[in-house]
Specification:
Elements lengths: L2 E2 L7 E3 L7 E6 L5 H8 L10 E3 L5 E3 L5 E3 L17 E6 L12 H18 L6 E3 H4 L13 H6 L11 H13 L5 H12 L10 H15 L8 H17 L3
Parallel strand pairs: 1-5, 3-7, 3-8, 4-7
Antiparallel strand pairs: 2-6, 4-5
Helix pairs in contact: 6-8
The protein binds zinc ion.
Zinc ion binds next to loops.
């Protein structure tokens, strides 16, 4: 695995908060690694990421971890809106409409090594390895529905949500009941909000609600149950329960 530091992006500033808490995964949607390097290092583009990983698994460090790279844009996670200040951004040389439209094994191998290193260095919680679409579900789709989250959870870099026992489902339902939440939509929004998603506008805006559900579905559901509302709801309840147990 090659690690290259010779390309540097000028697009960064000081973090407003020195504690690194999140890892954000992106795809570049560009033609290849060279294009991505010149884009992310171009002062006029005003974007950057700490890392870029090529299809052959080479890791490029474009901005030092201690600086605030500009990759998240307008985003939200657990009430945090300046995501760039508390995160590390990783871009993957992948374009859903390009020749680089596969997540190669070498790329994912390097990504996993990098995530492990970052988690150790900064004590990043396993709940905090996120998609750009998690923190900006109304405008971003990356890293998309073909990103192999399963491989990250098999390597224990992110949580593997275990199935709930009947008793545990009952606890969750009673808890919703005690908060006077009756419809599945109300419960789903509360679950999404506690997990960290931006639900500020979705109560009154169906279009935004659907976008949020679709971002969630692309990450957490497999293609068999992708259009099934019941399985989205069950996945969310399972997720929330697992999240509450492992919050810290
Ligand atoms: Zn992105």
């Amino acid at each position: 695995m090659k690690y290259i530091t010779k390309y540097k992006s000028p697009n960064y500033n000081l973090r407003n908060n020195s504690k690194i808490q999140l890892i954000i995964i992106h795809y570049t949607a560009l033609k290849n690694t060279l294009d991505a390097i010149s884009y992310l290092c171009n002062r006029e583009k005003k974007v950057s990421s700490h890392y870029l990983i090529s299809q052959n698994g080479t890791i490029y460090n474009l901005v030092k971890d201690k600086f605030r790279a500009w990759h998240a844009g307008q985003s939200f996670w657990h009430e945090i809106i300046d995501i760039n200040s508390v995160s590390i951004g990783i871009e993957l040389d992948y374009n859903p409409r390009g020749k680089n439209n596969k997540y190669s094994l070498k790329m994912i191998y390097s990504l996993k090594k990098l995530i492990l290193k970052l988690q150790k260095n900064y004590k990043i919680n396993k709940n905090n390895v996120l998609a750009h679409s998690d923190i900006a579900p109304f405008r971003k789709k990356d890293p998309g529905k073909y990103f192999p989250w399963q491989s990250l959870s098999s390597s224990k870099l992110i949580l593997n949500h275990r199935k709930l026992k009947k008793r545990e489902i009952k606890i969750m339902e009673n808890w919703f009941h005690s908060h006077n939440l009756k419809s599945k939509k109300q419960k789903a929004i509360l679950a999404l909000s506690l997990i960290g998603y931006d639900t500020r506008e979705v109560y009154k805006n169906d279009k935004l609600y659907n976008k949020l559900i679709s971002a969630y579905r692309n990450r957490y559901l497999n293609s068999n149950d992708i259009n099934n509302n019941k399985s989205i709801y069950n996945t969310l309840i399972k997720h929330l329960f697992n999240f509450l147990l492992t919050k810290n």
